[in-house]
Amino acid sequence: MYGKAFAPEYRGSLGELSVNTSLEEVLAKAKEEQLRAQQGGGDLELAHAGLAVAEACRRLGRVDEAERAWKDSYRAARRAQDRGAMAWAVWSGGTLARQCGHLALARRWLAAAAELAEQGGDIVARGYSLAGLAETGRIQGDYEAVGRLHEKLLAEARRRGEARHTVWALEGIAQMHRNTGSLDSALALFEEAAQIAGDAGDDRGRAWALRGMADVRSAQGDAEQALALLTTAESLCRAIQLVSALAYNHKMRGNVLYRAGRYAEAATVYGGALEEFRAMGEPRGEALARLGLVKSQARLGRSAALTAADLDALERALGDIGLLRAGDMIAKARAELGVTTAVAAAR
Q1: Which residues of 30-52 are buried (b: 16+ CB within 10 A; e: fewer)?
Q2: Which of 303, 297, 312 is nearest to 342 (CA)?
Q3: Whole-prediction pTM value?
Q4: Which residues of the chain have pLDDT under 70?
Q5: Which of 70, 220, 341, 347 gives 20 to 30 Å between its CA and that of 257?
Q6: How far apart are the C-alpha atoms of 24 and 17, rounded to whole Å?
Q7: Domains 1-128 and 242-347 share a fold
Q8: Sign of CA dihedral 311, 172, 101, 20
Q9: How far apart are CA 74 and CA 132, in angstroms?
Q10: Contact (CB, 8 A) for 170 and 207
Q11: Residue 4: enclosing H or E segment and its boundaries?
């Protein structure tokens, strides 16, 4: 039903690269192509090479390089008057904006990418851009607005037998089910995504699906199974050098340990994930790791006043990113830890 996973963001002469090619190898080959195009190739080849550089740098957490590369790719694509290539470059920029916590900017870039893709007749770029919009809305917590789009994109991906996009859509829908308490349906969707990704040779998609399965298993009380799933996912992340996915894997390991009452271990793991997110400039991951660390430290005896101040700061940080459910998330943490706001605590 599904073909092997492929990476349409690796274009032109780089199209032979696999979705599982290590990112350092992608970066090296893309820079070789970039140099070749600068010395005598055309603008379209330069656009393709710049896109691959941008995506490799983004996934490696080198956000400044990624920012320069996608803009260079866009300028080259515009000179070549290729709207499909322009769409891919802007998609990369929108994805980078989301990774850096600029969610409103991400939505603007991704909407522009979808429009360019439609004008250029690039159905895959359009699908990726709409998927990016759906994921951005899901991260913000706007489930009602993007739930239907996730389902539509899933149906399109299934119809085309496109494994990688099917896996992405399943994982997004599963995450919404997880976040709204439908654990059994979330687990089934994550398991289907992991199966399709495994069969299609999509290690990246499988790593994210295993992380989702671990989250649900942990919420159902099976910490050891959850940790085993995360260990498998971690090995996949390391093999491809998925820096961001690895940091989120570690943050989830902290969640599993925290739920199991292993607070000292959780604090250590959250602290490591926090440094990973800071190193790559990913504020959403940083804020979530900080939240886990604050909760773990509170369980280990940190004062209620300091915990309250930390939670207040985190509520502002998460709100600044644009997460619609930030208030609910922090209110839940306050109730769980038996603390109030820092202002109320000082009265």
Answers
A1: bbebbeebeeebebbbbbbbbbb
A2: 312
A3: 0.90
A4: 1, 342-347
A5: 341
A6: 12
A7: yes
A8: positive
A9: 18
A10: no
A11: none
CA–CA gap between residue 88 and residue 14 (Å, rounded) = 14
* 327-338: b (≥16 Cβ within 10 Å) or e: eebbeebbeebe
Q: What tokens does 69 get?
A: 């590369």
262-296 in b/e form (b: 16+ CB < 10 A) is bbebbbebbbbbbebbeebebbbbbbbbbbbbbbb
CA distances from 336 to 276, 332, 346 (A): 27, 6, 20
Geometric angle at alpha carbon 17, from 166 and 21, rounded to 5°: 80
Domain edges within the chain: 1-128, 242-347
CB 65 within 8 A of CB 248: no
- Residue 265, C-beta contacts closer than 8 angstroms, at least 6 positions apart: 257
- Which pair of structure tokens corresponds to residue 290? 């900080």
Q: Does domain 242-347 have CATH number 3.40.50?
A: no
Q: DSSP assignment, residue 21? A: S
Tokens of 277: 């997110």
In the chain the first and final C-alpha atoms are separated, in Å, by: 63
Report whether 116 contacts 90 (CB < 8 A): yes
Q: List, for residues 46-83, the tens digit of each pLDDT value.
A: 999 999 999 999 999 899 999 999 999 999 999 999 99
Q: Under CATH, which architecture does the 1-128 domain have? A: Alpha Horseshoe (1.25)
DSSP annotation string for 191-255: HHHHHHHHHHT-HHHHHHHHHHHHHHHHHTT-HHHHHHHHHHHHHHHHHHT-HHHHHHHHHHHHH
**Alpha-carbon gap, residue 234 to 251, rounded angstroms:** 12
The HSE-up count of residue 268 (CA atoms within 13 Å, CB side) is 4
Which residue shows structure tokens 């970066």?
Answer: 27
CA-CA distance, 183 to 52, in Å (whole number)? 37
Angle at 20 between CA 14 and CA 22, to 5 degrees: 75
